[in-house]
Design brief:
This protein has about 800 residues and is of the alpha+beta class. The chain has 20 helices and 41 strands. A seven-stranded mixed beta sheet has the order 28-32-33-37-36-35-34, with helices on both faces. A five-stranded antiparallel beta sheet has the order 5-4-3-6-11, with no helix packed on it. α11 crosses α13 and α19 crosses α20. It is extended, with a radius of gyration of 38 Å. The model has no long low-confidence stretch (mean pLDDT about 90).
Length: about 800
Amino acid sequence: MKISYNWLQQFLKIDWEATKTGELLTDLGLEVEGIETKESIKGSLKGVVVGEVLTCIQHPNADRLKLTTVNLGDEKPVQIVCGAPNVAAGQKVPVATVGTMLYDEKGEGFKIKKGKIRGEESHGMICAEDELGLGKSHDGIMILDNKLKPGTPASEVFNIETDYVFEIGLTPNRSDAMSHYGVARDLRAGLIQQDVKKELISPSVSDFHVDERTLRFDVEVEDKDLAPRYCGITITDATIKDSPEWIQNRLKAIGITPKNNVVDITNYVLHELGQPLHAFDAQKVKGNKIKVKTLKDGTKFTTLDEVERTLSSEDIMICDADSNPLCIAGVFGGLNSGVTENTTSIFLESAYFNPVSVRKTAKRHGLNTDASFRFERGIDINMTEYALKRAALLIEEYADGKLASDVSDFYPVKIEDFQVFLSYENAYRLIGQEIPKDTIKNILASLEIKINSETEGGLGLTIPSYRTDVQREADIIEEILRVFGYNNIEFSNKLNTSITFNSDTNTKVENIIANHLSALGFNETMANSLTKSDYINLSENIKEDANVVMLNPLSNDLGIMRQSLLFSGLESISYNINRKNNSLKFYEFGKTYHKFNDKYQEDKHLTLFVTGNRAKESWNSNNSISDFFYLKGIITTVLQRVGVSKIKTSPSKSDIFSEGITLSLGKIKLVDFGVVKRSILKEFGIKQEVLFADFNLENLYNLSGNKKIKVSELPKFPSVKRDLALLLDHNIAFKEVYNLAFQSERNLLKEVDLFDVYEGDNLPEGKKSYAVSFLLQDENKTLEDKQIDKIMQKLQQTFEKNLDAVLR
């Protein structure tokens, strides 16, 4: 949030340096993240002075140029070539001297240099108002007051203003400080603790009176819970034009582009007092009536940014007598009801809308405006009418309008100020130091917290309506502490601590795995648990009914809780690849979230991602691409590291893999891993192969905690490995090869592994090549070649018969 120091000084007449003021604001909890210098005219017209044109003759070499001599207040006049048609001797004019930086409307600077124009020397430039940033006219040079003394700096003539803008990192609870007046109010409390007593000056509305009751608007609010207070007034005979320079300077300082006097005034009051306002063109409101209501789902409405939006039945809408929508209440105005250059009569709105409803609407439509920012956090309901009168008076003064009605004020149930009792004993205990009671009472008074009653033990207090975050005794103590100063609390040099016994086995397992993977060159990632709902379309294993949907999502991309860690990991890989980081090894400990029969379930996972080269490119090592078996080796070492062995291999049932394997211990599934499908990678713009592994972390926890160790003899007789290169149809999965192999040979076949897949040139259309290894072993004797050949022949025949396989 941007706060102008010059604007603050309208409420508090202080002369502190901006940096010192920023330090005090930070101590008060309004953290100043930076201070920026702002100038009403960029460059502040440094180097521009008042010049007196002594002579003006025709340029000898150009019809449209004049040759002038100008007195700049120095001993010797200078010669300047000027092309303006209105330059003449005897004039006082603004002159940019040699070395001056001027800036165009885009903020790009150019330096005035000594030079020759058509053979004649020129020592500066006589300026038009657009060249100085003082206006848009370029018809001729500016003619200044003839009483001005030559050499007078232009910054003094035009009252150039230099401002300091605080960038405040406002926490969501501090809705009271969402305005210059609110920050000034807090600053005053801090100044009192510094023994600097300044009066807080609030804008006066004592001159408010109705000029003529000629335009009445009725207000109807359907649901007082959605709009507890709604005020409005009409203004006629308004003239839409540029707002005065001082308002424009205030808005520009905090980054707001001025539009016209009425819109600028509503923005000015919003940032001055924290109360959002909206001005309607009264002639575009049918029936001279305002209805605050909700409309049916699917209603179309075009907002000021010319975007057609589909309304929800929960959106609060401002409508006319025929229930035509004019504005999304508290969020954004409508395209066809706002103030334009043709507007003459205005309905001015000031209201308090339900913060929760406004926040949901703003997030639903992806809108974040200055108004919604304040309504979402809770504004001061008692500021509503005051801010309306303040804006109406400014419009009356600077748009020549007439107040044409009394204030319509819908406020059926007055919200009472909150009551809290403060115990001195609790305050001393939480603060850690005994603060004098008089100091506590002075701090409370400076914060406009009223003391209703006092006992030996504490104070009965009334909290002002604008402090929506102060509802408990602990909140009061926090207020006292921040104004008293955290830096003023004494602390002991004695350090107390206690030794605890950590028996969290799960954390130990995670640390073992993390250290192991980090040593292998993996980087840990931490992805958001919120993700896109569209990702469920990438896998049939992910069910829409199991989605945990956010009621109030931050955006459409963060609408549900993730059911898989795959997609957030692929987002990280895509991000890195797009930045030329192509060789990646990631791991993540995370959770997935599921909903089954109205019950919620969280599952813990460990995922690995591998893509690109195994190691960094180097002059003394060959580049080796990470492949399926490289990942399998890493997975095996992870399982061994936590004490899991004798793993069973089977084809994965997950449809996210083009080729995948499941590793299990008995019936307990440990990990799914394989090559991610190209169709999924395409959704993330990834063109290189990505390997993915998904561990069931809960099962790893349970198995690693098993202290029983089973010992068996190593086989006395050797194993034999044989390979087959099979040409298969493209739609056949490794799972079918795996199952047929064990159906064909149940006794001596121990393992079946896929170690190469080829899809490319020199193969028939619709075919692929699998290289499969078969491990054979007899625990009682050594296998003979004749027996091995018989088994392999049987396997080959089984594949040919059932899969139409061809041996390559």
